[in-house]
Structure formats: C-alpha cells, structure tokens
Amino acid sequence: VGVISTIDYVIIAIYLAGMVGVGIWFAKKHTDFDDFFLAGRSLTTPLLITTLISTYYGIDVLFGDSQLGFTDGVVAWFGYARPTYAFFLIAAFLLAQRLREEDFKSLPDILDKYYGKNTRYVGAVTSFIYSLPALSLYGFGMLGDVILGWEPIVGMLVLGGIALVYTLTGGFWAVVLTDSIQFVLMCVVLAMAFPFAMNLIGGFDIMIEKLEPNYFDSMGDLSIWLIIIYASTGLAILVEPTFYQRVFAAKSYKNIRNALIIGIFIWGSYDWIITILAMAAKTGTLVGKTIIDPGTGALIQKTIIDPGVAPDAALLTVMVAALPAGALGLFMAGVLSTEMSTLDSYCLVAGGNVAYDIYKPAIKPDATDQELIKTTRYGILLSWVLGFAMAVSFEQMLGLWVFMASILISSVLVPILLGLYVPKFRKPLAGFLSAGLGLSSTVILNVYIMMNGTFDLEEETYIVQWLGIDFLQEFVMYITVPISLIGFFIGLALDKGGRS
C-alpha cells in the first residue's frame, strides 16, 4: 500500500477547514425556517444537479457499489446501479410534478394531508430512521482506518464531527453550496484515479486474464432473488426524504426535471467507473510483484493488494496503492466530500423531521421560525448520535444500506404513491395501518435475524433457517412490503369515513 505524504495531509486539512468555514459563513444568514430548511425554495437546475448527485452518490455507492464490484464484478452496475436510473426517470416525469402541485415541506407533510396526524408521525419516525447518517459515519470509520491508521470509531468521531459542525450552523444553503464544491471534486478525482488504477494492475488485459468469467457476466453468479432485492432498493428514490426536500426547494418543476435527466448520465458514468475500480482492486489481490525484503535483502513475491482486504474497503485500498503524492490527497478530499455531502443532507432532513414533523404539530403548533431552527439543530445532533450507534452495530456497508432502504420502502412507499395517484384511497386508517405495520415488521424482522441468525462470511450477510430454507437478511422486503400493502387495504375496508 502506498504511503500518504505530508502534501496529502495538507490538502485534506485545507478541504476540511473550508467546509467548516462555509457552514459558519451561513450561520447567521437565515431569514426564516423555509430559508434554513429549503434554501428559500429558490434552487436552479445547476445547483439541483450538484446537490442531487453528490447527496445520492454518497457512501452507499462509493463503498456499496465497490463492495459488490469487488466480490461479483459488473453485476454491481447492471443489477444494482442500473435499475436506479429507471426510478429516477419515473421521479422526473411522473412524481416531481405531482409533488410540486401543493405547498409541502417534507415527506410526512404529504402523509398528514392524505391520512391525518397519526400517519404523519409514523412517516416522520420512518424518515428520521432512514435519514440517520449511519452509512456516512461507517464510511468515515473505514476512511480513518485505511488512510490514517485510526481506529474506525476515531474516524467516525473526528471526520463525522466536522460535517456535523457545518450542518448545524449553515442549514440547507450550506449543504447545497458545499455539495457544489464536492460534486466538482468527486468528478475530477474519479476521472483522474481511473488511469492510475489501470496502470497499477497492468491494464484491462490483466483484469480479463485474472478474474473469473462470471465477473464479466451482467448478472454475475448472484441469485435472481438477491438481484431483485438490490435492484428494488432503487424504489427508495420514489419516497426519498432528501429527494423530496430538493423537489420542494426547486424554483420550478422544470428545474428539478432537467436536473434529474442530466443527472442520470452523470450517475451512470460515475457508477461504471466505481465498478471497474473495484474490479481493479480484486485483480490487484491476484497480481504479484517482486520486492526487496528490507530485512534480508532477498527478492520476494507479493500481491499488489493484500488478498485479505475487506470488500467494502477495496476501493480505498487500490487508490492508496495507485495514486502519487498530491493526487492521493485530492482523492481523499473527494472521498471525504462524498461522505460529507451525504451526512449533511440526511442529518438536516432528520432534524427537520424532529422539528417540523413532530415538535410543531404535536407539541407547539405556534412555534416561531427561530424555535423551529433551534429544534432542527437538536434533531440534527440526535440523528448523528443514533447514526453513530447504528454504524457500529453492522458488519458491512451493503447490509446497512439494504436495512435503511427496506425501512423506508416498507413503511411509506404504498401510502405515498397510492395517496398521490388514487384520491379515493386517502382514508386515515389505510395510511396508518400501511405505514405502521410496514415500519414495525421491518424493524422486528431485522432485529430477529441479526439476533438469531449467523453471519455468513461468503454471502456477507446474516442468514436464518426457516423451514429448511436459508433466509438472507436482504430478503426481509419480500415479507414487509406485502404486509404494508395488505395493511393499507384492510384499513381501506375498515375505514368507512372519508379523509378527516
């Protein structure tokens, strides 16, 4: 593994200081809650492109995609990433316009209008859990470990703490403008890293020679059931709290539609490069190089990348090995930016769930904008602490992402989409049972499997035996989404009144 030089540390330090500076600059510039939480509903297409891409292309893609690319090959793009683009197209042409028709501020706002306060609170809890910055903090821990030699918990505390500072102070304007800086860094760094990684392993020919043929099969050797689950995590986009926040913050529907269409091409390129870099890392574990033993002076054979590298740390490891001084610092700043753009966005949404979706309607309906901003900051802090607890309780990143996505999809996908498109289905009990049963069944099943199942190193997930069948933790949505749908129609049948 390459050595990190002083210039790399200087570049990283300058970047981190700059991000905190942006947050402090915006700390006193908010006129009201709309300005703090939705940037005054004035985002144009270029700003929407940068904030959408850098938020979504956070840690779950950088390390979730690369984990799958490392273990299974191009299926990471064809089976995991590609279906997401179809959901983005649906969001651009069908969903965003409906969401813009009414004056919503958050996802639970929609549930409140269609199904009442009780469903709003379930939606707020769901959105809050989904928005916990566990994935980003997990990534900061890995970053500190692989790059800086820190214990993962130290990386989470130090690097995650810096992102927390500028989110607490700066609000959504700080998020959007730091996302713009981070977007440029991400694109430049990945384009720069690609040739270095290819050079390190000896080019595409070596990759084709060393990797198993299934690495180049568009569906790999994964079971169709697992591919369906990975692909269906893209459904989260249709009820994604940070996506909804950006729809509500856009200047117009046209701005958000254009940003999504342009974004799909950038997302596709970004995903593909990440997948190939992960495959390069796998190749590096199979390609030997001759080095001189510093102790004996003898020539010894060693692989370019340690074969024992964790799959979700593979991308970082190949970059440290491939990039020269200075370039490595830029790459690290780029990775940090990817992580931070995700953490700040989700913490802000979670804070909004506490202040706007629970505190205001349930505790203080006449809360002033300043009180809402203050309570949002408390919510941001709470989400960071709970996200930290969740990050240290999961074995690997892809499982954590599937857990987060399954909570969101199982709880609010059915009531949001049916409420948006079928007005006669807007019955309070239908929404409440659908969201409540979806949320509770997802949490109960995941906890049960993690407590009673065994962690399979080959599958990299928890597995429990039911009726002689191996049931993977990722399969939970096969049970919980139907529960949510059944709950909706039971509520619809029982609720003889209209929307209250």
Automatic annotation (TrEMBL):
Protein name: Sodium:solute symporter family protein
GO CC list: plasma membrane
Keywords: Membrane, Transmembrane, Transmembrane helix, Transport
Keyword Transferase: no
Similarity field: Belongs to the sodium:solute symporter (SSF) (TC 2.A.21) family.
GO molecular function list: transmembrane transporter activity
Membrane spanning residue stretches: 6-26, 38-57, 77-96, 121-141, 153-176, 183-202, 222-239, 259-281, 313-336, 378-394, 400-422, 429-451, 475-494
CDD domains: SLC5sbd (cd10322)
Entries under Pfam families matching the protein: SSF
Membrane topology: Multi-pass membrane protein
Family matches, as InterPro entries: Na/Glc_symporter_sf, Na/solute_symporter, Sodium:Solute_Symporter
Record's subcellular location: Membrane
